[in-house]
Each structure stands twice: as structure tokens, then as C-alpha cells.
Amino acid sequence: MNGKAHVSPSAIYPGSFDPLTLGHLDVIERAAAVFPRVLVAVVVNPQKREPLFTLEERKQMILSATKHIGNVDVADFRGLLADFAKSAGAGVIVKGLRVVSDFENEMSTALMNRSLSGIDTVFVPSDPKYSFVSSSLVKEVFFLGGEIDAYVPEAVLHVMRAKRANLRPTEPSEEKS
Ligand code: PNS
Hints:
Elements: E1 11-15, H1 22-34, E2 38-43, H2 55-65, E3 72-77, H3 81-87, E4 92-97, H4 100-117, E5 120-125, H5 135-143, H6 154-167
Parallel strand pairs: 1-2, 1-4, 2-3, 4-5
Helix pairs in contact: 2-6, 3-4
């Protein structure tokens, strides 16, 4: 010990969450068991592609799915994560790693974020039962008619069903002649 008082840092868990999966929720629960507060930070404009769910839908699904965890907050951010994490007073960034190949990208991202903000990244290995679960696969399976109950929280399933009902094109028999 160096005589300094150690204060547990609060954590920030960033992502697109389009939508939140049970894999994400598992990382949030485990981070919340280690850090005094976990801020789930939803990026407004994901870089990969236009999100299926609006920002409000993505945040609402996270709030509903995490209401059993007392020390979790949800916020959104634009621009650099490093800037937002600093302004939010985060002590660490949490990232989940599903497969070994995730590490390659996440390593350089973690080093860049630390260089920009001084905030380190803590990696949480995915539970193997969720290692193949991603938001994009869940959406693809769901909209092609597959079952996704095992991969997303109940709150997400409700919103996805509503979204599918709204997106479903009119059946030919329902069309007016
Ligand atoms: O769930 P995702 O899509 O894998 O999350 C990616 C996210 C939001 C964590 C990442 O794109 C991000 O940090 N975006 C903010 C922009 C930024 O800070 N870019 C520089 C990273 S070193």
C-alpha cells in the first residue's frame, strides 16, 4: 500500500445498443457489482449504420431492462467518448469482449481513449452463452421470423414486436383493389 486512499471509480459503458442484448445486460450487471455506479452511454449516431431504433427507444429499453439494478444510469452522447467520459466524471470505461478477435480493435480504441482522456478501459469477458449474440444478428434473426427470446431482455422483445408490426408491409390480400 502507498498510503493513498483508494476510491472506487465510477464506470461508463458505451455502445450503440441497437438494441440492448442479454450479452450487454450481463456486462452491465457484472460491472455494477464491481463499480459503485455504471453509466450506460448510448451513442447518438452509431458509426456503423443508421440505427433501427430511435435514441429514445434505445435508452428506454435500457432503462426498463436495468430497473432491477440500483446503481445504473443511462445517458446519451455525441462526439468523442473520451470527452463525454471525462465530463461525466468516469474513472474507467467498460467494454465487453465476446471473442478474441474483438480484442484487436478494442485494444487500439482503449489506448486512444486513454491517450485522449487519461481514462483506462476495463475489459469484461462475455459469458460464453452470449459470445455469439450481437445486436445486428438479433435484428436479422427477428425480422426473418426467428425466435430471439433467449438473446434479448423482455423489455426489448416488446419494443421489437411493436417495431415489426409497424414495419410489416400490407399483405396482398389486405390491399384495396
Ligand atoms: O456498440 P458499439 O457500436 O460497438 O459501440 C461503439 C462505440 C459507441 C463505443 C464507439 O463507436 C465510440 O466510442 N464512439 C464514439 C466516438 C469516438 O470516441 N471515437 C473514437 C474512439 S477511440
